[in-house]
Amino acid sequence: MIKASCPICETKLSGRTTADLPYLPFCSRRCKTIDLGRWLGEAYHLPAEDQDDPSENETTEVP
Ligand SMILES: [Zn+2]
Question: Which of 32, 34, 46, 56 could form a disulfide with 26 if both were Cys (CB 3.0 to 4.6 A apart)?
Answer without folding.
Answer: 32
